[in-house]
Design brief:
By secondary structure, the protein is mainly α. The chain is 82% helix and 0% strand.
Amino acid sequence: MPQLKRELGLFNVTVAGVGIILGAGIYALIGLAASYSGNATWLAFLFSALIALFTGLSYAELSSMFKGDAGEYDYIKASFNKPLAMFISFAIIFAGVFSAATVALGFAGYLTQLINISLFSGALLLIGLMTLINFAGIKEASWFRY
């Protein structure tokens, strides 16, 4: 079985994670969050941060126990069974797709204010551009985020 080559260090992964959180959670969705939680918006973000903290600690513990490259698949397969691991793997993929769509729509909302383009076209433009950058390689894509 081929092994993945480690290209990104702790700093690269941390910056990418913070960028995703800022892009989707703060810049794109702060208005929507405020419309639902009002003056307690800070409490909603604090609660989300606590959930993210415990999730991160859980992943740190699991990744120290399982040394494979497959992440969630390895964890679920060792604990339960292969079909459930496949289901969870697909769920993670779909979560990534929905997260990317959220960020793309948030970006497109800002882009439509700058140029006369539809929301859908702006989102597709961002997704296409990011796809081309990712095809260049994960290391190159991480440098683009800075």
